[in-house]
Amino acid sequence: MRTYLVTGGAGFIGSNYIHYMFKKYDNEIRIINVDVLTYAGNLENLKDVEDRDNYTFVKANICDRDAINKIFEENDIDRVVHFAAESHVDRSIVNPEIFVETNVLGTATMLNAAKKAWELPDGSFKEGKKFLHVSTD
Ligand SMILES: NC(=O)c1ccc[n+]([C@@H]2O[C@H](COP(=O)([O-])OP(=O)(O)OC[C@H]3O[C@@H](n4cnc5c(N)ncnc54)[C@H](O)[C@@H]3O)[C@@H](O)[C@H]2O)c1
Fold it and tell me: Number of folded domains in the chain?
């Protein structure tokens, strides 16, 4: 069974993506949704999938290296679909730092965790693993 790690799954695109994937693949896939639940995240978007055996929600910040590495260590992740972001661009004028933290450093944390989990001792990577980053930035 293929395991997807979705970040920002409680947001607009992420929650629609999770619904789409369960509609398409039903019990053939497993989805782990990592979201820190900022003002933009809402678990109400996922009420109808929360009881599925093949769905797990983890409340964590993508900048939290230990939390993200732990997810990779405890699960054989096949796909990362990375939506978590500060997405309301007008807010970046008031507080640009949080955009840099989440969108740049958080993305670097996700990439490093995937690399650590997927890299083999000879420097090559496990077959069939994929990282998709969806972002305006
Ligand atoms: N919505 C659009 O029309 C659109 C269009 C093009 C590109 N995008 C891009 O796609 C991505 C997703 O957009 P969206 O509209 O779903 O955004 P959104 O703001 O609706 O959702 C973002 C989600 O990320 C979570 N999040 C934020 N910071 C986090 C962190 N540090 N750790 C973990 N989770 C965190 C939030 O809680 C929220 O659930 C963004 O990069 C956005 O810029 C969106």
Answer: 1
Residue with tokens 């290296």: 65
pLDDT tens sequence across 32-87: 999 999 999 999 999 999 999 999 999 999 999 999 999 999 999 999 999 999 99
How far does residue 85's CA lie from ligand 1's centre (Å)? Answer: 4
Gap from CA of 45 to ligand 1 centroid (Å): 14
**60 C-alpha to ligand 1 centroid (Å):** 14
Candidates 20, 70, 80, 67; CA nearest to 45 is 20
Task: Give the residue numbers spanning the domain of 98.
Answer: 2-133
CA angle, residues 51, 27, 132, in degrees to nearest 5:
95
81 pocket-lining for ligand 1 (C-beta < 6 Å): no
